[in-house]
Amino acid sequence: MRFGFRAFPDPGGGSIRPRPIVDVVVEGLDLAPQACLLDSGASAVRFGLHVAEICGVDLRGAPTGRVGVGGDVIEARMAEVDLRVTDGTDSHAWHAPVWFCDPWTPAFGLLGLTGFFDQFEVTLASYDERIELDPISV
Amino acid sequence: MTVNVKIAGQPFLLAHREIVQLCRAVDPEPIASHFVVIGGRRFPPKQVICEITGLDRADFTSHQARRALMRVGFSAGRRGGARQSSPPASKASPLVEQLRPLIGQWVATRGDDVLHAAASPQQVVSWLSRHGQEADSMFRVPEDDRAAGGLAPL
Prior knowledge:
The complex is a heterodimer.
Chain A: E1 2-4, E2 6-9, E3 15-19, E4 21-26, E5 34-38, E6 45-48, H1 49-55, E7 64-69, E8 72-86, E9 91-102, E10 109-111, E11 120-125, E12 130-135
Parallel strand pairs in A: 5-10, 6-9
Antiparallel strand pairs in A: 1-12, 2-3, 4-5, 4-8, 7-8, 8-9, 11-12
Chain B: E1 2-7, E2 10-15, H1 16-24, E3 34-38, E4 41-43, H2 45-53, H3 62-71, E5 75-78, H4 94-99, E6 106-110, E7 113-118, H5 121-130, E8 137-140
Antiparallel strand pairs in B: 1-2, 3-4, 3-5, 6-7, 6-8
């Protein structure tokens, strides 16, 4: 699957540096795929708690932890959820542990090592702002 | 800017500033084809004319509504087509320019269109459900480089 980097406006004018972002359908909520940053510095997949609320992920009794996000340590709860990406031609679905964090300051979800980078062979070609995801066959 | 227009045989005095203020409190409906840009958001022209005149939608056409709003100074366009009136030229992608007035808000996008923007992700999803719409992507428009950045664990 191939994707382009994505640009966003800079409040001062122009746009900020385009980012490697793909849209992930969480728990089959097709009407609102979540924009997610490919973040090899993150140890796992992380979303704001609002994503669990929107998608109806039950976090009662879920394992809890404290994770570092943006220089802060915040509360997070983990659930195994279904994720799916598509480039309009091909798609891939997988099941992964996801940490739902509160509070959540990033603009996007974060696709980290466990649950994303261990599911795909990932090419990040920043020079031409291209992402390639090849699902790893087990 | 204030303009006298006739819609469905009735005269109306349309004021640019009042329309902008009124539309701040209105959720845009899905865009089928034509749209006008008001306060950085896209609205179906007929929805706006209904809101400001109280006319029934069956009483006038989308073309009449669009023409009236363009006379008051709003830019208009068509999904998937070129814009018909004149926002500032930019080298940035059409979506980047649409997102600029929405910095800090949650948005649902499809292609180069912003389907809806709101203060919370729950409001965006609620709007998508109510209107039977599917987005390509949902996110908060980053306020700065940090909000768009990767966040390595401590």
